[in-house]
Amino acid sequence: MQTVTARAHTNIALVKYWGKKNQELILPYTNSLSLTLDVFYTDTSVQFDPLLETDQFLLNGENVTGKSLIKVQRFMDLIRSEANIAMPARIESTNHVPTAAGLASSASAFAALAAAGSRAAGLDLSLRDLSRLARRGSGSATRSIYGGFVEWERGDSDATSYAVPIQEQVDWDIQMIAILLNRHEKKVSSRSEMANDVATSPYYPAWIENAQTEVDTIKQAIAARDLNQVGQIAEQSAMRMHALTMSAVPPFTYFEPSTLQAIAKVQELRAQGLSCYYTMDAGPNVKVICSARETPQILAGLSTIFPKEQLTVAKPGPGIQYLPPQQRSD
Ligand code: ADP
Ligand code: DP6
Ligand code: CO
Asked: ∠31-195-230 over CA atoms, to 5°?
């Protein structure tokens, strides 16, 4: 059967998804909203092959076994059952994003796998159905089907939980600077930490109660192209999410000392009149939300404490793409 290659870009949530009401279907408690980025992405090729005994998964040129392989196999089972085929597949993926470091590799990974896998199985899914399928691999992947600003509508069933593009072509000046403080794989996955926070943080009911206001307000701010308002809400959502990890049993944080240094620097630059705001995901790395116009000054400020190699500028990125095999960039 033919090999299909897809490229999906990562997205960084401005209003975070943190907590599932249904683990099996990956249905979240709240809506979330993100920006897809151009520089971080995953390329994945899938080929079904009746001669294989089981699914094979190569990530960045290395054969993967264990938990990550099982996740991919379970995901392929969903595709096989929908396409009504039984063959194993050969899956080759390259992350142009650090894996499992809180830069949303699972988002680009499962969006790319959903697109390549479904098409290789002969399915021709709509973007909405691709988003629903990607969701089953990793919640954040639901949003990586689309470019620009994207909302994940939580829904209350497999059929009603999917992403919706809010502003695919971002025609105003907003971007991010990723500060790569630690590229190592996290010891505590987003999946297990969010489940523990739902179960044990006394603040989780308040998280659910607040989320919709944040989504509604940030959508107005995006429509008004108001960087400061977008940034303020993003900071609030990120800090509230991290407050859930700190208030869980056992208490936990993804922050490292350098995370706090980066936050302090962003605050200092803002006090100097620059419009910059921070967000963090399930890892220590910090992303700064800012304009392209002020990026040179913000980079200059950040590089007084972080080497330039740790700073990556990312612009709004596109939605899912299919590539001819020879266009893989690895
Ligand atoms: P991140 O912050 O990078 O999203 P997660 O813990 O959410 O971290 O997801 C990382 C996991 O996603 C990896 O351990 C692996 O199981 C899976 N993953 C990452 N990249 C790929 C890929 N290209 N293809 C399939 N699965 C992947
Ligand atoms: C902090 O999508 O990685 O990045 O659904 O269990 O695979 P699973 O988790 P994942 O969680 C992402 C959490 C976040 C916030 C966000 O992307 O909205
Ligand atoms: Co993830």
From this structure: 35
Whole-angstrom distance, CA of residue 132 vs CA of residue 164: 11
Q: Rounded to two decimals, what is the model's pTM?
A: 0.97
Using the Cα atoms of residue 137, residue 152, residue 109 and residue 116 in order, give the sign of their dihedral.
positive
305, 265 Cβ separation under 8 angstroms: yes
User: Is 100 a pocket residue for ligand 1 (Cβ < 6 Å)?
Assistant: yes
Q: 107 is written with which tokens?
A: 């988002």
pLDDT for the residue 329: 56
The dihedral of CA 9, 186, 72, 93: what is its sign?
positive
Average pLDDT of the chain? 97
Whole-complex ipTM: 0.99
**d(C-alpha 235, C-alpha 258), whole Å:** 17
Whether 327 shows a pLDDT value over 90: the answer reads no
Q: Which ligand is nearest to the CA of 108?
A: 1
Q: What is the pLDDT of residues 117-170, one digit of tens each?
A: 999 999 999 999 999 999 999 999 999 999 999 999 999 999 999 999 999 999
- Phi then psi for 259, rounded to 5 degrees? -65, -45
DSSP string, 172-229: SS-EEEEE-S--SPPSS-HHHHHHHHHHH-TTHHHHHHHHHHHHHHHHHHHHTT-HHH
Residue range 1-9: mean pLDDT, rounded: 95
Q: In the chain, helix, strand, coil percent, each to 5?
A: 40, 25, 35
302/269 Cα distance (integer angstroms): 9
Pairing of strands 20-22, 56-59: unpaired
Ligand 3 centroid distance, CA of 297 (Å): 30
The structure tokens listed for 43 are 């390329």
Q: What is the amino acid identity at position 150?
A: V
Q: How far apart are CA 75 and CA 71, in angstroms?
A: 6
- The burial class, CB within 10 Å (0-12 / 13-18 / 19+), for 297 is middle
* Ligand 2 center from residue 107 Cα (angstroms): 8
